[in-house]
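With this grant's support, we have paired protein sequences with backbone structure tokens. One protein thus recorded is set out beneath this paragraph:

_____
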Amino acid sequence: MSTGRLTARASGSLNGRVRAPGDKSISHRSLILGGVARGTTTISGLLEGADVLATAAAMRALGATVQRGDDGVWTVTGVPHLTSAAIDCGNSGTGARLLMGIVAGHDIRVTIDGDASLRTRPMARVTGPLGEMGARFEGDRLPMTVQGGSLRAIGYRLPVASAQVKSAILLAGLRAAGLTEVIEPEPTRDHTERMLRAFGVEVAVTDAADGRHVRLMGGQDLTGTTITVPGDPSSAAFPLVAALITPGSEVTVEGVLLNPLRTGLFETLVEMGADLKVINAREISGEPVGDLVARHSRLRGVSVPADRAPSMIDEYPILAMAAAFAEGDTHMDGLAELRVKESDRIALTARGLEACGVTVDERPDGMTVHGLGRAPAGGGLVHTHGDHRIAMAHLVLGLASTAPVTVDEPDMIATSFPGFVSLMASLGAAVTDA
């Protein structure tokens, strides 16, 4: 891939069957839990993007054995006691925050760093509750040093819905004295709870009037297991939306994770009139999966409920591209989290669409895309600020716009979707070096 720019242009219908890269959330968790489990964990379908590879390197530095076989299957041999180290999480906020949780439970001193983007991202939402448990932190942003060990269990109500914060507390709770409880105001993705059970940990989840309660008792051992990582719904969204907005298209994405806490985008697209269907539904490694079939559709604007945001927080940029083609306005709220992702994704999505002839009203915690009911003009140069999802979303826009769309800094696409350009090309998409 070029280190300069990529351009997407209309090239006719998109057709074919593809498989999305492995789910990033599950990939991170499988490496981390495998690294502290007794015995060996085998992982098939691991996302081999830069973010996940940084987590693999971090677990090696902490003492686990992490290897990739020639067949693409990864093996992780865990260690009961992690070792002090300096680790680099690259661009991965998920990796950094989950590693803080697992490190906090060990009597070790670990320095966690990342790239320039990750160094700007807030960490207090994690260090606050972990500090209440007894972990000590030097610094409030990366690079940060963590001194773990001698934790006490806490009950903690999340001030805002966050699977990363919940997961960090639960991972620390594995080695805390007593019962750790996290109360969620709204349910967030539950991959940590599901995967902990796969490793033999007892996790209780109950719904009450004040939210969802997740509890685990400290001192439980993890046992190595076998994991098959399903396709990432956030990545599957790009070829699926491309098919929906490109006339004459029909695309199938196989083996996509359909965890109900991750399918908000697909639900929203159907509400917009998308011809989007699930076939071959099944369960793999404790997670529901299926094949998704998308056909070109005439879309209409909708109001997306704010309480749906946790189930599709990473998918709003690509939803905004679909909304640009829709008839009428699409309102999106409850998105304050997007301001502190790899970039300010509300602002960059709005600026990118405006550069391509689409009007967007931006709010502190949301945006409204004024759909055209037809193909946008395109023709813009989109400044991605190194954000992989901003880049891919606007490249999808360019596949059905009147004029080509160019994005800068495309190398960051590899953090979540290695092979994006070649996969889209296999469907007939024209994405080339600018």
Observations:
- The chain has two domains: 5-22+231-433, 24-228.
- The longest helix spans residues 24-36.
- Residues 68 and 74 are 4 Å apart (CA to CA).
